[in-house]
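Quick one, tokens below. Sequence please?
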């Protein structure tokens, strides 16, 4: 009888992956909750990849996200590690502070009252 040891898998929470910190998720989910209450957003998805963490926002469950909030730690000392991208991939805002970067999306909540 031959015994084979199982192949080792890379650790899931290792340093090979970028993720949002709990405080960052609190800021993002706070905005998400307000936008859901306003009827603007309906679904979200989180991806943690090697170089980037992405929080995608959907108006409906669809193929393409309405907005993507990205965290790229390699850009921390340059343009800022946080960015908000539109549906077409255009960078709407980039910076070092997550709250100031997300203000570009909060403006969508402000509507003229008639």
């Amino acid at each position: 009888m031959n015994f084979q040891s199982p192949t080792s898998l890379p650790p899931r929470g290792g340093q090979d992956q970028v993720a949002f910190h709990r405080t960052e998720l609190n800021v993002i989910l706070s905005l998400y909750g307000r936008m859901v209450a306003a009827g603007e957003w309906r679904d979200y998805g989180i991806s943690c990849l090697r170089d980037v963490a992405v929080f995608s926002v959907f108006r409906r469950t669809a193929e393409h996200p309405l907005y993507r909030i990205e965290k790229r730690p390699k850009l921390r000392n340059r343009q800022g590690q946080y960015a908000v991208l539109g549906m077409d991939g255009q960078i709407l805002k980039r910076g070092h502070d997550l709250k100031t970067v997300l203000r570009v999306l909060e403006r969508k909540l402000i509507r003229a009252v008639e």
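The chain has one domain: 22-109. Confidence is low (pLDDT under 50) at residues 5-9.
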